[in-house]
Design brief:
Number of domains: 2
Strand order of the largest sheet: 3-2-1-4-5-6-7
Shape: elongated
Oligomer: single chain
Helix content: 40-55%
CATH superfamily of the largest domain: Glycogen Phosphorylase B
Radius of gyration: 21 Å
Number of strands: 13
């Protein structure tokens, strides 16, 4: 029997991409997945091109935003909930799947008011603001870390990992070559710290003679244009792009990945079995990116460099040390792969179907 499921959560690629993986699995099983998001979030770019339906809603963040913006969001929340109630009435969903984030707030509140089952996925060790607030209304919580279960009702959670594209699990080990390829990405919105460190590193790489190929996702178009122009003038191998549509392909060609440590990035590194230099975003809610990076470093899957310490010189030093030690890179890759959870999207779809019936 075909069912309709509403997918809540947006703002960043880390919220949208896992929800897309679950939506693809639901539609593969003959169901209908409808997203709810904002025109400002990354869902506005990713969802329409994926072919999924999306309903638009207006809401802003509450956590880590300034007092005035927070007050505006609170003032808009009742209207957002009323709008979400209208979406529920139009689509009659069998359940709501929430990745958390401010975009999910109005829809999960409306779902709780109407008794629609809520399945929440919490990919971080410490739940985000929205998932903490709705924890008591969640029928099932899908986690990446066992310790996160304490935030939800007993017996309602399980560790599934984060749904990511299956293509990451299919990547073969990359053979070591004369040119060392580095993928630098600050996520869908980019990272000023990583962008600046990358720019500072170019001259040092040229001076020390290490043959590198740099693939750099900068984020915003404004940042990209200037960085791409200056990179082209260096003569270094590689490319600078604002956004990478085929991230599994970019992972496949990389010997080392330099990135933030959000839950989505961590899950992709594990699935692909890729060694990494992790630079946690220092303003992440409850410092969850630092906790994620520490877990990977403890497992021997990554190097951790604090945001305040990431410079061009530090980046080059870390890359030189790792590039000179292929056995260490191989061990880091194996350690990363040991942390992977395959089948998370399928398990999420199983649970949604169970609640629907």
């Amino acid at each position: 029997m075909t069912r309709t499921f509403l997918m809540a959560g947006g703002g960043t690629g880390g919220h949208v991409i896992p929800a897309l993986a679950v939506a693809h699995e639901l539609e593969r099983r003959g169901h209908r997945a409808v997203f709810v998001g904002t025109h400002e979030g990354f869902e506005a770019k990713l969802v329409p091109v994926s072919g999924h339906e999306i309903e638009w809603i207006s809401i802003g963040g509450l956590k880590g935003v300034g007092a005035m913006k927070g007050l505006r969001t609170l003032a808009a929340l009742p209207g957002g909930v009323m709008h979400a109630l209208g979406i529920l009435k139009r689509h009659h969903p069998a359940a709501v799947f929430s990745m958390g984030g401010y975009v999910a707030g109005p829809l999960v509140i409306a779902a709780a008011l109407r008794g629609v089952p809520i399945v929440a996925m919490e990919p971080n060790a410490i739940p985000g603001f929205t998932n903490r607030r709705i924890a008591r209304f969640v029928r099932r919580a899908l986690l990446s870390f066992p310790e996160t279960a304490r935030y939800f009702a007993k017996g309602r959670s399980e560790v599934t990992g984060v749904p990511i594209r299956h293509a990451f699990f299919e990547l073969p080990p990359k053979p070591h070559e004369e040119v060392f390829t580095i993928l630098i990405t600050g996520g869908s919105r980019g990272s000023r710290t990583l962008n600046n460190a990358a720019r500072q590193s170019w001259r040092i790489f040229l001076e020390n003679g290490l043959r590198v190929r740099i693939v750099h996702q900068t984020g915003s178009a404004a940042a990209h244009d200037e960085i791409a122009r200056d990179f082209a003038a260096t003569g270094l191998e590689g490319r600078v792009v604002p956004f990478i549509d085929d991230m599994p392909a970019a992972f496949a060609e990389a010997d080392l990945i330099v990135c933030r440590s959000g839950a989505g990035a961590i899950a992709e590194l594990a699935a692909a079995g890729k060694p990494a230099i992790l630079v946690p975003f220092p303003y992440a809610t409850d410092d969850h990116q630092l906790h994620n990076a520490e877990a990977f470093q403890t497992a021997g899957a990554a190097r951790l460099v604090l945001d305040s310490e990431m410079t061009g010189a530090r980046l080059v030093r870390e890359v030189r040390e790792l590039a000179a030690a292929p056995p260490l890179l191989d061990q880091m890759a194996a350690n990363a792969r040991s942390l992977a959870h395959e089948g998370a999207a399928g398990r999420a779809a199983d649970i949604l179907e169970e609640l629907a019936s």
